[in-house]
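New here. Your pick:
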Amino acid sequence: MASLRYIPINFIFHVFSLFLIFSGHGSTAELKTLLQPVKPDGTVSFLVIGDWGRGGSYNQSNVALQMGEVGEKLNIDFVISTGDNFYDNGLIGLDDPAFQDSFTNIYTAPSLQKPWYTVLGNHDYRGDVEAQLSPVLRDLDNRWVCMRSFVVNAEVVDFLFIDTTPFVDKYFVQPNKHVYDWRGILPRQTYLNNLLKEVDVALEESAANWKIVIGHHTIKSVGHHRNTIELEKQLLPILQANEVDLYVNGHDHCLEHISSVESKIQFMTSGGGSKAWKGDVNHLDPQELKFYYDGQGFMSVDISEAELRAVFYDVSGNVLHHWNTYKEALYFAS
C-alpha cells in the first residue's frame, strides 16, 4: 500500500467517489447508505476524532500531527468525526474561512487524505447547519462527508451516524444566549420519531458482523457532561435490542471507555481533538469504567471479520489504553 502515496490525491478520490453510492438495500428506512471499500483482506482501519475545530489552537495541530503518523502506520481507510467540528458557533456560511483554517490546513498528512465521515455537534448547530451539510464543501475539500444521519457499509461492519443534538431538551427550552439553526428539524418530535424508526430499521436489517453507532452526545460518560438522559431513554433501548457493539461519541473533551452491565455495548468517547482538561470527573463503578483520560488525543479502530481492536492515543501519540473483542464463533472457526 506504500505505493499509494505517489498516486495523485484527486485520482484516489475519483475512485472513491465511484463507491460513494446511495443505496436503500431494500429497506423502508430513509437513511442514506454509503459504500466504503475495504482492504483486499477484508479488514477496515480508521481513526476517530471529535471536538476539534479551533484553527490549530489548544493542541489541535499537535493531535493532527500524531493522527497522521498513526494513520500511516495503520494504513487507515477513513476518519470519523464525532462532531463539534467548528468552534465556537459552527460555520457562518459556505465561504467561512474556518473550514480551511480548522480542517483543510490542519489535517494535511498524506494518510489523512481519506474520507472524513462527519456528524454535527451542538456547537455546529449554533452556526449555519446547511453550510456544513452542503455538497459545496466537498468541492472545496473532497474528503468532507457530512449529513445529519446516515449509514456507511464497509462489508464486515455497518456504521450508523446519528444526529443527536435535536434530542437534547435544554437546547430548546434553555438555549441561554445561543441561537440554534433548527431548519430541517421542526416539528421536533416528528423529526425524532422518524429518526428513531429509521435507526431501528437500519440496525435490524443490518447483516454486518459488527454494528457501530456514532453520535456527538454521550450516552454514558463520567466527564463534564455526564450521561445524556434523553439518549438513555430514547436511543439506548434501540441499540440494546439490536445488539450494537460500540457507541462512539464526542461532546466530553476527553478519551473514555465505559462498559455496561446491561448489555455488551461498549461506550467510547473520542472528544479530545483540541481544548480539554476540564478537571471534573464523576465516580463510576470500576467494573464499568475501563479507561478515562482528561486530555487531548484520538482513537484508532481495526476491524476484521472476527476481531475488533480499539486504541486510545494522547497528544504525543502515546498509547493510553487498548481493548480487543471477538466474534467468538468466527474467531475460533478461523
Q: What stands out?
A: The chain has a mean pLDDT of 91.
